[in-house]
Amino acid sequence: MKVSVNEVSGCAKEIQVEIPAEDIQVRVDEIYGKITQEAKLPGFRKGKVPLTVIKKQYKSNVREEMIQHQLPEYLREALIEHKIDPVAQPRITHLQFEEGSPLKFVASIEVKPAFVLKEYKGLKIKKEKTKVDSEDVEKTLDTIRQQQADFILAEDRAAQNDDLVVIDFEGRIDGKTFEGGKANRYPVLLGSASLLKDFEANLIGLKKGETKVFKITFPEGYGNEKIQGKEAEFTVTLREVKEKKLPELDDAFALKVGKFQSVQEMKERVATDLKSHKEVEQRSKMIEQIAEKLMADHPLEVPVSLVNMEQQRLIQQGVERLKGQGVDAGKWTDAQKKEFVESLKPIAQKNVHMALLVEKISESENIRCEEKDFEAYLEKISAGSNQPPDAVKRYLQQQNRLESVKEWIQYEKTLDFLIASAQIEAA
């Protein structure tokens, strides 16, 4: 087998492979031999079909077998021989295969870039305080009360901010009702910015049973491209006004929302959770600073295939997050989808860049996911899911995620090492 390797770029190689005709013929004859033993053709007994007939009948099958199964094996041998580790499926071009001639092809391959690590210990970063004060706790408690608020009918007054109003509305552009411009008994929490600011402003001051006609202009960049920048006339009738009533912050409320025995116990838990949240947030900010410094000191060409895979992961993650917020990305316009996808590409590039650096540092410092690390991870997931650790492990095995989880644990351990070895200043 003749192999030549061309360096296309820091992440791309081109491998030209040529298998001698005599080697190819040996494999081709083996395939024909197997076919001869099994072939059933009219007028011939099984295993007795002449080779000339077999070659005429099954020539395309042999070609397919060579390309689909034997070619990858030749490529694998070439990669092992030249110590090349692809990050994605190689692309095969310039394929030449005819019986009696050498098998030739070119494989375009992406690899991780080779680079030398510069200093990565003692990086100067800043960390903000993670202290939680009483004001932070009170704000969180107020948010919980807002989420648990009741809405009571207010019969004799006009709508105001924080009210939940129920309306009928119909909007027209150039005298015609447009898609999504009409609804009955539509709930609106005033001040929540769930609708356009100008629309909500026109609801303030209305009383039950009153109708109002007003005009608003849809802004550029509005979700529905067809009505961007257009003026619409709305007719709105207010059906109900409901006033927000916050629950009392007492022991009964604490028991209801979190099974706490007292308000004091609830406050202590909120303080603990806030501190934990701030610590996680500060760790993320320190990692961002470390990443910026490392990437600035290690400019790399990153493999396009890895960026594409990471971008797809971010897209899926983003769509699921939006779904949880009640946003259906499937209903977006083509322009919105394109903008969303393109916005994630630079993030994907940075993630891949940082992952390559962290992997190199892991090797340099011999940081690995040990069994105790994996067991601790299983225990943590078990506690949060009410499933025993063995069940969590079986699920990961069924999803073929064991290795990816261990890689993630190694990645996080390396980040912890970088933070521990950094020079941290108070922000």
Helix content: 40-55%
Here the CATH topology of the largest domain equals Trigger factor, domain 2
Q: Give the mean pLDDT.
A: 92
Binned strand content: 15-25%
Structural class: alpha+beta
Low-confidence stretches: none
Tell me the name of the CATH class of the largest domain. Mainly Alpha
Shape estimate: extended
Instruction: Give the terminus-to-terminus CA distance.
Output: 61 Å
Oligomer: single chain
Rg computed from alpha carbons, rounded to a whole number of angstroms: 33 Å
**Whole-number count of domains:** 3
At the fourth CATH level, what is the homologous superfamily of the largest domain? Trigger factor, C-terminal domain
Write the H/E string, N to C: EEHHEEEHEEEHEEHHHHHHHE
In total, how many beta strands?
A: 11
By DSSP (H or I, 4+ residues per run), the number of helices equals 11
